[in-house]
Design a protein that fits this description.
Helix content is 33%, strand content 27%. The protein starts with a helix and ends with a helix. Bound molecules: adenosine monophosphate (AMP).
């Protein structure tokens, strides 16, 4: 099963329907896309690449991004989608550790990537996409679809590196097929008349959630730039109804308070099908704002690159079920296990824990990665006993809903007590002038660690006693921050994750 077979099929069945669009303009019909993908695949093979070889993509979102990725798959190559906002040295690390010979990149990143030709031994060719070189490749004589087994690697997903050195989660064609099927099972069915908006990086969630849409022949739509605004979203909804998109919580927060969207009537939002959020904690106060702006069109997913965004989910129906006595608690959690996986909470010896007790979240199922690329030790450790060890700490409730406490590395132990930063952050965010908060542990000679809160306000000077009071009203005294640091913004990566390691380093 080669995932690129979807493109070939759609190229016949949906020949004249739009496949790729930039703004309101169609950039390729399915017939055109299928031809470009088969041509691009032949061109890539012409560069000396053989099935199983890696080809990296270092590009900002663009219709040609998908063309390039699908051409790589069609040729049986392994795509390495790199977060385009990484530093040149970080990109070098990924190319080197995945022994990638060819990089497809855009003008904005070409200088950085081309400079690596001298320093990264395995790198031998950099092709600019779009551009005359890519045009020449994609107009080659079409290559027949390369046969792939479901266990063959398709995507090396380099983890975003909020902790330690990035590792390449090896996602097979079978893993990505399963992730796409379980999207239909748990999130939404998709029709060829629908659309998917790529408002977040294709190298991460947006790329993964794009797949079920590709499978069904929906159109992939690209906004004009990286920062989607309310006005543009409304225009795109009118042009491409049946629209879904993936966004990190930080982006949902921004959109939910966009005055154009707040003022939008139901008719203007009618084209919006689903907003899928995840990848980082969504705080209840923000979620309530988002529901007020968008209506019950939100679905949450909890996952990680190692099990491509498929562990648990909170459906649109769960979000809409406001009369449920535990609605608030549920909205602070990450939902219940997805159809295609088993999920457990275990202790340090991997023994399952009962509901109510917190431990590491482990996952088993055919969506789980084959392993970390050429890292047998890290693979054996993470997949021990046949379960993916997520490094996240959580607990189930009696109804089988999972609440995420934190990354195990983020857990603060102060005076022998476990403190989950998320609880403290949720408490601080209730304060009307607090816009964002991140809580970390600081080494403390007396307590082991002490709680420090980094706080972003709306510009108002908030006295520390006020913040203390907000916390004391909601959480145990020992969890209250010992120190507050005020910042203009929290450091985040472009996947919307707060870089806690950076905050810890600042202390
Ligand atoms: P990545 O593989 O880079 O996408 O990072 C995955 C990590 O992001 C997970 O292990 C979680 O720690 C975090 N994460 C993903 N989804 C959620 C969610 N819905 N709520 C809170 N944290 C999440």
């Amino acid at each position: 099963m080669n995932l690129a077979s979807w493109v070939e099929r759609n190229g016949r069945r949906l020949r004249e329907r739009p496949a790729l669009a930039a703004g309101d303009e169609v950039r390729a019909t399915w017939g055109q896309l299928a031809a470009r993908v088969a041509g691009g695949a032949a061109g890539l093979r012409g560069l000396g690449l053989e099935p199983g070889d890696r080809v990296a993509i270092v590009m900002a979102n663009a219709p040609e991004y998908l063309e390039a990725q699908l051409a790589a798959w069609h040729a049986g190559l392994v795509a390495v989608p790199v977060n385009a906002r990484l530093h040149r040295e970080e990109i070098a690390f990924i190319l080197d550790s995945s022994t990638t010979g060819v990089v497809l990149t855009d003008d904005a990143h070409a200088e950085d990537v081309e400079s690596l030709l001298d320093t990264v031994a395995c790198l031998r060719r950099v092709v600019r996409v779009p551009g005359p070189e890519w045009d020449a490749l994609r107009t080659s004589d079409p290559l027949p679809l390369t046969d792939r087994h479901r266990d063959d690697p398709a995507w090396l997903f380099y983890t975003s590196g909020t902790t330690g050195r990035p590792k390449g989660a090896t996602l097979t064609h079978g893993n990505l097929l399963m992730a796409s099927l379980s999207y239909f099972a748990d999130i939404d069915p998709v029709a060829a008349t629908d659309s998917v908006l790529h408002a977040a990086p294709l190298s991460h969630g947006s790329g993964l959630y794009g797949l079920p849409h590709l499978a069904r022949g929906a159109v992939s739509v690209f906004p004009s730039g990286p920062t989607l605004g309310g006005e543009e979203l409304l225009a795109l909804l009118a042009r491409w109804p049946g629209m879904s998109f993936f966004a990190a919580p930080i982006m949902i927060r921004r959109l939910a308070s966009d005055p154009v969207l707040v003022a939008a009537g139901p008719g203007e939002l009618a084209g919006l099908k689903t907003i899928i959020y995840g990848g980082a904690p969504m705080y209840l106060a923000d979620l309530e704002d988002a529901l007020a702006t968008f209506g019950p069109r939100l679905a949450q997913i909890y996952g990680q690159g190692e099990t491509p965004m498929t562990i648990t989910g909170l459906s649109k129906a769960d979000h809409a079920d406001r009369d449920h006595p535990r609605w608030r608690e549920r909205m602070q959690g990450v939902g219940f296990p997805r159809t295609d996986v088993e999920v457990r909470v275990v202790d340090e010896d991997d023994r399952p824990l009962p509901a109510g007790e917190a431990g590491e979240i482990v996952v088993r199922g055919s969506v789980v990665m084959a392993g970390y690329w050429e890292q047998p030790e890290a693979t054996a450790e993470t997949l021990r006993g046949g379960w993916l060890h997520t490094g996240d700490v959580g607990s189930f409730d009696d109804d089988g809903f999972l609440t995420l406490r934190d990354r195990s590395k983020d857990l603060i132990i102060s005076g022998g007590m476990n403190i989950y930063p998320r609880e403290v952050e949720e408490a601080l965010l209730v304060h009307p002038h607090v816009e964002a908060a991140a809580v970390v542990g600081r080494p403390d000679p007396e307590w082991g660690e002490s709680v420090v809160a980094f706080v972003v306000t709306d510009g108002t000077q908030v006295p520390i006693e006020d913040l203390d009071r907000t916390c004391l009203d909601r959480i145990a005294r020992f969890k209250r921050p010992k120190d507050y640091v005020f910042l203009d913004a929290l450091p985040t990566n472009n996947y919307g994750k707060v870089l806690k390691r950076e905050l810890r380093e600042r202390l």
